[in-house]
Design goal:
By secondary structure, the chain is α/β, with parallel strands linked by helices. Helix content is about 50%, strand content about 10%. Strands 4-7-6-5-8-9 form a 6-stranded mixed sheet, with helices on both faces. A 4-stranded antiparallel sheet has the order 16-17-13-18. It has a two-stranded antiparallel sheet with strand order 1-2. Helix 12 links the parallel strand 8 and strand 9. The mean pLDDT is about 90.
Length: about 775
């Protein structure tokens, strides 16, 4: 920590531990001077001037490292600086120092370490043998720390972490490298119901990947590996021949398949015309329900957490340096055999533990009836992909780049010079030094700051427009063509069930969820999403005000029940209530305010947020919220009760039992607590909406298969489903999809779906 540099002298050095990105450094006096251009005894004064955001040290606003060094070299310390203000010729700097003197002196007090703290210690009390290392490991696992160095591992006693080296000889991992062994393996597998399965492949992209091998496990510590590709000619059978032998098992409903991220493996098998009938248990998805607060559900981490077992790192096989890494088909088949068998064996062991937790947490309906069946639908959607009009995308990209050039010129005309608009540092200098705008949030140039600054200078609005268009160009228009599969001429995005804690699907490569809905340019991008065949249409189905309807179901709010059941305009109804006027006297502005309130309340917004969104004083926003809750008292009661439930039970949940942990509700940081409250107010509503559309997707997919329908479900964006539909199926599809979407879950208000079709997503939406 740089604060410690003030302690460095002839007999004290600071040891700064390095990592793979930087070397370990021992700071003596000379090293401190080399790093900060100042000796150790001036570090306190230096930090008092520049501040330290990580420790909430304010410093002197506008004084950076170079200026601080220059001042201290001239005046020695901040006391001398403030005693010599008349000697400072730079008027702006002098003014900043005068205005921030109290902050500077406070900062110095905060940074100066107290060297006279009495320290009493007993070496015998530092003996670590009394620690409960098993409990320590459990607590560290909870905060996603799974890897321990050898100095800690040796103390773990009964819960010591096994490694692949220590168990290799005790495992029965069989290399299946001839016809006789395959036939025996198939006979063995048929005796069991649960089969853990995993593919080794040549690529992370399932539509480009080729199968290197397949591993299967039916009981713990016992697994098989069949190689398809390998450097040595050990097994002459072709991929198709092996799959022909395995197909009766893979396609049979008799067997239940389990694995880690099964969607990837089964999407690859689909390329070989193998459809898995019974996707039963995915440890990746299971963990996302059991511990939705985690950032990662990697199998390596789950193995440590559930099994106290450290798996063989893939880098042992393919190498650590990405530029020279091998692919799995270049690795010795014996080495791949252990690695592949270990995967399915570990999955089997974790499954045996997770299945009980899923039941104990009452997540079984959500897991087995919604999340697991959904995998098959996502496989088909990813396999189907969506067709993109590349010429239109390129044309729109060119158009926006020309517009960006004009906006850049306007920005430069305001700034009086050219600079890198994408550089926060250079932009900050333009806004707060050159244009003398009042700094907000320590000279931040974030979008929320620009939204405030646009009231004071037109450059801010131009910057916001520049960022918006630039993001569309860089994120979508210039990258969409790169995702087109050369074999299908379609874009095959990757849908993920386990990223968003509310259960909403996310997508990447590319991310279709973030295409803006409200802007004209966002709508233009939708023109590029078209059917591949001329006799087909894009059909869009979108839930109408679904989160408000779910809120009404949860709260049983009388006025909302009446409005939805009588098919009234919910926003006009709300406006009439909060402004105390008849509905026929509600103008567009009052309706706009009511609409903002209706949706903002779902996200736990308070007076400050409402005032910013509506651009009204906080006092007026508070009055509107007060009137809203007076009009809808059961909503206020719901918000209070859900926060109370979360605090008392440690979680909140959706209609189908999806949970969100609420540990942050007890944070000592008020901002974190308020953010947590907003999240847990919204989660049951948004999470139930995500379950609603998933159930609809499952039911629609089932009917499509039963009726042998040619139409394809190609995209799910929030509350909207997109289909590519032949002209002859338009009426049939409309009837099926509308019914299934509106009846997926029964609420105490009607569920309504808006739909339309056209020759592009733009026309359909």
């Amino acid at each position: 920590d740089k604060d410690l540099m003030q302690l460095v002298n002839s007999s004290i050095s600071v040891f700064s531990l390095g990592n793979k990105f930087k070397p370990t450094t021992v700071y003596n006096r000379q090293k401190v001077i080399e790093k900060w251009n100042l000796p150790p005894d001036k570090i306190v004064d230096y930090l008092a001037l520049v501040g330290d955001a990580s420790d909430n040290i304010p410093g002197v606003e506008g004084v950076g490292p170079k200026t601080a060094v220059k001042l201290l070299n001239e005046f020695n310390n901040i006391e001398n600086i403030f005693d010599s203000l008349d000697d400072i010729k730079n008027v702006k700097l002098k003014e900043r120092l005068i205005n921030n003197k109290s902050n500077a002196m406070l900062s110095k007090d905060l940074i100066t370490l107290d060297l006279k703290v009495p320290i009493k210690y007993n070496l015998n009390e530092m003996d670590v043998s009394c620690f409960d290392f098993a409990a320590m490991k459990e607590e560290l696992n909870k905060i996603e720390i799974y890897n321990f160095d050898s100095s800690l591992e040796k103390y773990l006693n009964g819960t010591s972490i096994d490694t692949f080296e220590s168990v290799e000889k005790s495992r029965n991992y069989i290399l299946v490298n001839n016809n006789k062994k395959i036939d025996k393996m198939i006979l063995d597998i048929k005796k069991y119901e649960i089969i853990s399965i995993d593919l080794e492949t040549t690529s992370l992209d399932p539509l480009k990947a080729e199968i290197v091998g397949i591993s299967m496990c039916v009981k713990e510590n016992y697994a098989y590996y069949i190689p398809f590709k390998y450097p040595d000619e050990l097994f002459p059978l072709k991929t198709e021949t092996i799959l022909d032998k395995l197909s009766p098992i893979l396609s049979s409903e008799k067997f239940k398949f389990i694995g880690q991220n099964l969607k990837y493996d089964f999407l690859i098998l689909k390329k070989y015309n193998i459809d898995i009938s019974n996707i039963y248990f995915d440890t990746y998805i299971a963990e996302s329900l059991i511990s939705p607060e985690k950032n990662s559900y990697k199998l390596d981490n789950l193995a440590i957490e559930y099994l106290s077992y450290k798996m063989q790192p893939i880098e042992d096989l393919i190498g650590e340096k990405k530029k020279v890494q091998k692919t799995m088909d270049e690795i010795s088949v014996e080495k791949v055999c252990f690695y592949a068998c270990e995967d399915v064996d570990v999955v089997m062991k974790i499954y045996n533990k997770q299945k009980k937790i899923i039941n104990d947490m009452q997540l079984d309906y959500l897991f087995y009836n919604i999340e697991m069946p959904l995998i098959q639908i996502l496989i088909e959607m990813e396999y189907n992909g969506i067709y993109i009009d590349v010429e239109l995308v390129n044309s729109l990209s060119k158009k926006l780049k020309n517009k960006l050039k004009k906006i850049s010129d306007t920005i430069f005309s305001y700034s009086g010079k050219e600079f890198n608009i994408n550089s926060p540092k250079q932009l900050s200098e333009v806004l707060f030094d050159d244009l003398q705008l009042k700094p907000i949030k320590k000279r931040s140039t974030a979008s929320n700051v620009l939204n405030i600054l646009k009231e004071y200078h037109p450059i801010a609005q131009e910057l916001l427009e520049y960022r918006h268009l630039s993001k569309l160009v860089n994120t979508y228009l210039d990258t969409l063509p790169t995702f087109i599969n050369s074999m299908t001429n379609r874009v095959h995005t990757n849908f993920n069930q386990a990223i968003v804690s509310t259960g909403r699907l996310s997508s990447n490569k590319p991310n279709f969820q973030n295409i803006p809905i409200k802007t004209d340019i966002g709508k233009e991008i939708r023109r590029a999403f078209i059917p591949q065949n001329e006799d087909c249409f894009i059909y869009s189905y979108d839930y109408s005000q679904i989160e408000l309807r779910i809120l009404t179901h949860f709260t049983n709010e009388t006025e909302l029940l009446k409005a939805f059941n009588n098919k009234e305009d919910i926003h006009s109804k709300t406006a009439a209530l909060i402004f105390g006027v008849p509905e026929d006297q509600v103008d567009s502005e009052k309706r706009r305010i009511a609409k903002t309130i209706n949706y903002s309340i779902l996200y736990g917004a308070g007076p400050f947020r409402i005032s910013q969104e509506l651009k009204i004083p906080i006092k007026d926003a508070s009055e509107i919220i007060k009137n809203y809750f007076n009009s809808y008292p059961k909503i206020k009661n719901y918000i209070e009760e859900i926060v109370k439930f979360g605090a008392n039970n440690g979680y909140v949940q959706t209609l189908n039992g999806r949970q969100r942990k609420t540990t942050n509700i007890f944070s000592s940081n008020k901002n974190i607590v308020e953010a947590e409250k907003r999240a847990l107010i919204n989660m049951p509503i948004q999470g139930t909406a995500s379950e609603l559309i998933k159930i609809a997707m499952i039911n629609i997919h089932k009917i499509f298969k039963e009726k042998n329908i040619a139409s394809k479900m190609i995209l799910q964006i929030h509350d909207e489903l997109l289909f590519e539909v032949p002209k002859k199926e338009l009426k049939k599809i409309h009837k099926i999809v509308t019914y299934e979407m509106e009846n997926a879950i029964k609420l105490n208000v009607p569920i309504i779906v808006d739909s339309n079709y056209g020759k592009s997503w733009f026309e359909a939406h």
